[in-house]
Amino acid sequence: MQNSINLELMKNLTVLYVEDEQDIRNNLQSCFSSMFKKCITAKDGKEGFNKFMKHQNEIDVIITDLNMPHIDGINMIKKIKSINHKIACIITTAYSDKQYLIDSINYGVNHYILKPFKIESLLREVEKSYLSIHYVNKLKEQNEQIENLARVFNSTKEELKKENNKELNSKLTIFSEIMQLLDRR
Questions:
Q1: Share of the chain above pLDDT 70, in %
Q2: Rounded alpha-carbon distances, angstroms, from residue 173 to 19, 127, 160, 185
Q3: How far apart are CA 164 and CA 170, in angstroms?
Q4: Is the pTM of this model over 0.85?
Q5: In 3-state terms, the chain is what percent helix, strand and coil (to 5)?
Q6: What is the strand order of the sheet 88-93 is part of?
Q7: Is the pLDDT at 155 greater than 80, yes or no?
Q8: What are φ and ψ of residue 178, in 5° steps?
Q9: What's the whole-number mean pLDDT along residues 147-162?
Q10: Are 54 and 16 in contact (CB under 8 A)?
Q11: Rounded to an integer, what distance in angstroms lies between the CA atom of residue 78 and that of residue 84?
Q12: Whole-angstrom Cα distance, residue 20 to residue 18?
């Protein structure tokens, strides 16, 4: 392998794998079970969405087939992204239709992999997808911290005193209300 896969990172990820073909799903699930912290599987987009709702606080990456019964991969991702736009999503498909590719980009799919694929290629895409989302989120958090620091440094002493007084006054108001409630007992 040219670029090695960070196996330590993989061991910390939980993946939702959605595939309607049972043999493929079972084979990859057994492979994923040894690669990832946890692999949650679903047989179609409807079940995939339901499992996402149940495990959304655990799932780091979604890998889904495109054409499936009930809800296809793109519509499942569209529904999931409306709830959590930060989740990394990868589509695997045997179809190379340009419209599917365009739709997947429009709905925030990180990678689009044509079947058949090598497991190493898929793992590399999982790593890239997760890290791209992870670093974007980290940068947003750091940017917010920098903006807060800039606001403090650019504030005058009077502005800071006013802000601190407002915060202190609201805390005193809450404390006063609590005391009044306790007195009524």
A1: 79
A2: 56, 49, 20, 19
A3: 10
A4: no
A5: 60, 15, 25
A6: 38-42, 14-18, 61-65, 88-93, 111-114
A7: no
A8: -65, -45
A9: 66
A10: no
A11: 10
A12: 7
Contacts of residue 12, Cβ cutoff 8 Å, sequence gap at least 6: 37
Residue 140 identity: K
Say which residue the tokens 């079972």 belong to. 26
CB-neighbour burial class of residue 48 (10 A; exposed 0-12, middle 13-18, buried 19+): buried
Cα separation, 103 vs 86, in Å, equals: 17
Mean pLDDT of 34-50: 96
**In this predicted model, what pLDDT tens digit does every residue of 49-64 receive, in sequence order?**
999 999 999 999 999 9
Which residues does 153 contact at the CB level (< 8 Å), separation at least 6? none
Q: Identify the DSSP state of 95.
A: -
What's the pLDDT score for residue 1? 41
Over residues 59-79, the mean pLDDT reads 94
